[in-house]
Design brief:
Shape: elongated
Organism: Faecalibacterium prausnitzii
Strand content: 5-15%
Helix content: 55-70%
Mean pLDDT: 93
Protein name: Helix-turn-helix domain-containing protein
Order of helices and strands: HHHEEH
Distance between the termini: 30 Å
Oligomer: single chain
Pfam families: HTH_16
Length: about 60
């Protein structure tokens, strides 16, 4: 079972911290590759699209404090 991302990492990623964003992308890299498979091959265009969407979503997410 994989480790969960820490709350602090998620908060920093939502604030645009490059290291935290990289940590989130690294954490979900396997899942992204799995979702980007088409006919048993990784579709790099789809993979890049998913990564772009994840980054955009991270930066739009706001925590109520």
């Amino acid at each position: 079972m994989s480790q969960l991302l820490s709350y602090e990492t998620i908060v920093k990623a939502s604030e645009g911290d490059p290291e935290a964003v990289a940590a989130v992308l690294s954490h979900y890299a396997g899942y992204i590759r799995f979702c980007a498979k088409m006919d048993g091959q990784i579709n790099t265009d789809m993979q890049e699209h998913i990564v772009r969407q994840l980054i955009e979503s991270l930066l739009k997410f706001h925590f109520d404090r």
